[in-house]
Amino acid sequence: MRWAVHASALFPLLHFFRPAGSAAIPRDDRCRETKVAILGAGVAGITAAQALSNASVTDFLIVERNDYIGGRVRHTQFGVNPKTKAPYTVEMGANWVQGLGSKGGPENPIWTLAKRYGLNNTFSNESSILTYDQNGYEDYTDVLGAYEKAYGVVEQDAGYILMGNLQDTSMRAGLSTAGWKPKKDMRMQAAEWWAWDLETAQTPEESGFLYGITGYNLTFYQFSEENNYVWDQRGYNAFVIGESQTFLSANDKRLLLNTTVKSLAYSDQGVTVKTQAGCIKADYAIATFSVGVLQNDAVTFDPPLPRWKREAIDQFQMGTYTKIFYQFNETFWDPNTQYFLYADPKVRGYYPVWQSLTGPGFLEGSNIIFVTLVGNEAYRVEQQPDEKTKDEGLAVLRSMFPDKRVPEPVTFYYPRWSFEE
């Protein structure tokens, strides 16, 4: 789902698993010893450490290559508040709580934590949307409605496949069978991107039909259809830090930040974790590495992971969301509208969905707007210079608002997730 928080897979071998810390391992040949090595301080790593602590297992180390807790729940400073002159905090990664909970039903545990730590957030109103093409504003919201109607048929068809244990197919085939055939209609392509790609970071051709629908249902039907955008100026990872503080003290020596795992050697006798700074010997390890780390062999396993596990890892794909932030000296778009959908005349998914942060309930008066790219377009812009990306986005904005003077941004930024493992 769209940059919502999720836990990485835990690999249940007796040997790996994820540490992070504030103290560096001594640079000598002696290994630091512990009962459990927890490899990674993202949501999964911190949750694993918390579970051990709750079970009165306190002899563990958390090893994390970054200098913060949170993994891909990560933020940065951007722009300047016109009133306070302080920088804003914007999220590079996870940004939403998706599916909050229903009355009398289950509550999304991330929403429970967001409330516990008082994260500032605002409902993402997906009905607050204006539509554009290369000629400026064009109302094609009826196309969004047509997609929703076809999607209702798609959901029923997925149920037939599940109940009948039938052969799965692609989301593209499912949509086509339901009568949704965008072909070269770029407005339909934009509507489809808004409804599908933005949620999954994959095209319908790349998405499985049955479990594409199932994944959506498990979030939005199990909990609720609400999406809340987190704009808390402490950063979204405030809840991860808060949970870590329930079992870690200030400057806890069990948390090893800025410590990169290079290899793991494991056997029935235990596991040895080698880092750039030394080594750790543990009885057990919990590895919460991302799929990208595992697929790119960033960490060496000795012996290698079994074939069945390597094959399972290689079946996954990392979805890449690239959020491109612009701050201007004025708000030239409608400040009361949250989303602006653009249908490029040639390229599907080309700077398609812009989101305003300057309006009510967000970073009011910030003059900040950002656009999200996924898949091949995300990879493309992450490999080109900032200036080229900035100019491409500006050209789109100037097409969308031909009657406005769209100036150069005061500041501009985007992360490059595909360069990280």
TrEMBL record:
| Alphabetic keyword roster | Signal
Q: What is this protein called?
A: Amine oxidase domain-containing protein
* SUPFAM superfamilies the UniProt entry points to: FAD-linked reductases, C-terminal domain (SSF54373), FAD/NAD(P)-binding domain (SSF51905)
The uppermost taxa in this organism's lineage are: Eukaryota, Fungi, Dikarya, Ascomycota, Pezizomycotina
Q: Would you indicate the residue range of the signal peptide?
A: 1-22
Gene3D superfamilies in the record: 3.90.660.10, FAD/NAD(P)-binding domain (3.50.50.60)
Please report a single Pfam family linked to this protein.
Answer: Amino_oxidase
The UniProt record lists the Amine oxidase domain at 43-418
